[in-house]
Amino acid sequence: MNILGVSCFYHDSAAALLKDGELVSAASEERFNRQKSSPLFPIHAVNYCLQQGDRTISDVDYIVFYEKPFLKFHRVIAGHLQAFPFSLKNFLDTIPHWLKERLIMPLVFENEIGFKKKVLFAPHHMSHAASAFFASDFEEAAFITADGVGEWATTTYGVAKGNDISVKKEMRYPDSLGLLYTAVTTFLGFKALEGEGKVMGLAGYGSPRYRDEFDKMVAVASDGSYHIDQRYFGFNQGRRMYRRRFLKLFGKERIPGEEINQRHCDIAASLQQFTEDAVLSLARQAAFETKMDNLCLAGGLFLNCVANARIAEEALFKNIFIQPAAGDSGGAVGAALWAYHSLLGTPRGKRIYDAYLGPSFTPVQIKRAFAHRGIAFREIPEDELCRYVAEKIYQNKIVGWFQGRMEFGPRALGNRSIVANPCNPAMKKLLNQRVKLREAFRPYAPAVLAERAEEFFSAKQFSPFMLLAAQVKEKKRSLIPAVTHVDGSARVQIVDKNTNPRFWRLIHEFSFLSGVPILINTSFNLRGEPIVCSPADAIKSFMTSQMDCLVLDNFVCEKNQF
């Protein structure tokens, strides 16, 4: 049986293919059309998934959409009516899209890709829950999902066993921790759905002196439920998501590009602390009600690795699995898994999830990409490659590292990464100036050999998907200054030898030279762009930045060769 999961038309459109229960491919549309967080119908991602699975659209038995459009439309209309006349502009902007696409999804699939069979619709937060539970190796688990909003739900928790996922509690729009975080993100001058991670980094430079103001706006009950005072917010009322009453509490909004001051840092710290405490309350209630040892997390809010770490540190559950594509792109995977297991009743097998689900490229394709740009390169044998590249990194060269299948989800995990020396105190500044052009307050993440993580970092649990923060051990901070945040934390990725052997070898070779089994691992993209997908994308980023070295599988190009 072949099932195609699809998410689209809001942000982070994606597709995923299940073949007899095996997840063979998944990718976000942005990687192909090069439009960051693309909401467009994922025609390129669908085509890739089918090609990777050696299937055509006629072989697909079901397409599963990641939410229920009519139920969502009900919420959209109700919200606009409630906020009228302030919502008029939003109403006029969005309704044509609903009438053209979102309410006629079976026709959209027929027109775009020629699919004429049955289309299934999974509830949005059920897609999130399924994406985490069915991708985990747990036979039973509690789950929590949290994001901006699906149809009506913004947060859910419950129990998953076997093929069944049962919601125990649901919080509904406009009460939304995700929308709260996004509203403050825009107040701080960052872009919605892209700047939330920046706010998390900015929080490390502040103190939570505005915490009382957040407690004033949002009431959190002892059972983990919460209520947002809408006198401070207007989530669908036009230009901004907050009202004048919000401005009276926090002062003037930051204009994008404006200098960041201590007030901005303190607001970010207050928001982050409030969010951590709120999700921790949810986790405590889920643990109390479900009595489960395992926890699954999904939804865009759980891309917040600091909040995730707070849950892990509380030790409410023995094991935690966080969906690496926790946002809407992962909904495509969850929708397909939900249909296969819950709707069609197919028994679960072994854990099927692996983050390396995107396209890979042949040596011929890589050579052709170099030749197209007239760039000199050389091929290095496998047994020499990692030592050679590690020496470049040890010499403080910045390396674009491209290998194998592209990662699914927002994190680069060693296949589409820019890697550098974490021991050099100046490396963060060099990366910002020469390649990433990022804000100075944003930290860079360490990738560490899994077997040596505990030497450098303190955490209850580590993540292979860079989704759990950890404290850098005080005695080790001077060894890895470029990946130690101002508050002593780091967004750690552990690298397992069996999961990604070549990336593991690269870090291992660097450890021989430096004594440190860690590399800076940041996503292979320039500012404002999606992570690279193809060799041509990688070469373009390499040529338009000041990276020193580019590695495409076994093919190496260096700037000093020109």
How would you sum up this structure, described in words?
Helices cover 38% and strands 19% of the residues. The protein is of the alpha/beta class and 562 residues long. It has 3 domains: 2-135 and 327-343, 2-Layer Sandwich (Nucleotidyltransferase, domain 5), CATH 3.30.420.40; 171-322, ATPase, nucleotide binding domain (Nucleotidyltransferase, domain 5, 2-Layer Sandwich); 363-561, Carbamoyltransferase, C-terminal domain (DHBP synthase). Helix 6 (124-133) packs across helix 13 (328-343), helix 8 crosses helix 11 (262-290) and helix 15 (382-394) packs across helix 18. The mean pLDDT is 95.
Structural class: alpha/beta
How large, in whole angstroms, is the Cα Rg? Answer: 23 Å
CATH class call of the largest domain: Alpha Beta
**How many strands, what sense, and barrel or not for the largest sheet?**
10 strands, mixed
Overall pLDDT metric: 95
